[in-house]
Amino acid sequence: MKAILFAVAAGLCWGVGEVFTKAVLHTKQIGPVTAIAVRSLVALPVLWLVYAVVVHGAKLEPQNWTKAEPSTLWKLVLGSGLLAGAGGMVCFYAALNFGEVSRVKPIAFALAPATAVLIGWLLLGEPMHARKAIAVGLILFGVVLLSVK
Questions:
Q1: 71 vs 52: CA distance, rounded Å
Q2: What is the pTM of this model?
């Protein structure tokens, strides 16, 4: 249940936040890369504070992540940092700059879980059953409907 509540909270934060982002980009006074830079600049101190509280204060996570295996650190840096963090944000903000938030946001945020489900099944050995496959199919169908004018 905690996972669902946090996922709902994340979706609400992103949904509302990206409407603000689109409104900012729409003014043409700020571009997508500047918006990402400001977003990151504002988010980083908050994230480091949360990190300090969760890891050092509440001790809810492993204490010394720097001693993780090199393959784990490379996955973190390349996959989470560069691909999902930088690459995803640059592409998403560029899409917001050129398109409607009501189309861009659902497409980007529908493809993300569909891709994760498929990669989780194919590469991580997570279970795939009919209900999950139908849900991914419906997500992809919805993306097609949103993409076509």
A1: 24
A2: 0.80
